[in-house]
Design a protein that fits this description.
219 residues, alpha+beta, nine-stranded antiparallel sheet, 39% helix
């Protein structure tokens, strides 16, 4: 809309500015997201080749290339595993995690969480009753959500055996027959990938330990 002398009005100028900003955003944001996705997929490709995992791509309602989600799945030492990212919330409250899961249904209803001093707040799982323990060179671990004393003692041994040399910002848990290791954020670089590789070895060792423990408890 033009003013009385053929000059654009303030509303017209605002519309033009907003339109220009939107056009710039449409050019910049996809490129930024594309680079981030390329970095993540590069690390996924390494994991896929190293552990013979299959990559899955899930398209969003926006179509191919926009808001796509990716995951890896396969088997490791006889256990079904998966690596994927997931989020909660919107805008500034949005949080994104990367999770590695390993299926161990023989664990039954046993549940526990293992966190260390290095675990960042955003990666922590919901906590219940807590019993802090210290062992090894890694400092204090927290074992959470165990109902039986014998299971608490077992989880203590499991953590000290499997996590003595593992220092990471992530957290571990066993819930409903699934072991999980998760970190806050996306798997974007080599350092993060190496932690997830080590976490996979740890989850498999934990599953082996739980299998032996369940067998001895049922005997």
């Amino acid at each position: 809309m033009l003013g009385g002398e053929g000059k654009p009005t303030a509303m017209t100028i605002n519309i033009l500015i907003i339109g220009t900003l939107c056009a710039v955003a449409l050019l910049i944001v996809p490129r930024f997201l594309g680079r981030s996705k390329e970095r993540m997929l590069s690390q996924y490709n390494v994991l896929g080749k190293r552990f013979r995992l299959k990559r899955h791509t899930f398209t969003s309602k926006w179509g191919s290339g926009i808001g796509e989600r990716h995951s890896l799945s396969g088997d490791y030492r006889g256990y079904p595993i998966a690596i994927y990212d997931h989020f909660q919330g919107k805008g500034r409250s949005r949080r994104v995690w990367t999770s590695l899961t390993l299926e161990a249904t023989f664990a039954g209803e046993r549940e526990f969480v293992i966190e260390s001093l290095a675990t960042v707040d955003g990666a922590r799982f919901s906590s219940g009753n807590e019993a802090k323990m210290k062992y090894g060179d890694t400092g204090a671990f927290t074992i959470i959500g165990l109902d039986e004393d014998k299971d608490t003692a077992f989880a203590d041994r499991l953590a000290s055996d499997c996590l003595a040399d593992f220092n990471s910002p992530g957290a571990f848990r066993l819930s409903k027959g699934f072991f999980e290791y998760r970190e806050l954020g996306l798997l974007m670089d080599e350092a993060t990938r190496l932690r997830f590789q080590e976490a996979l070895l740890i989850l498999a060792d934990m599953a082996d330990g739980v299998s032996e423990y369940v067998g001895s408890s049922d005997a």
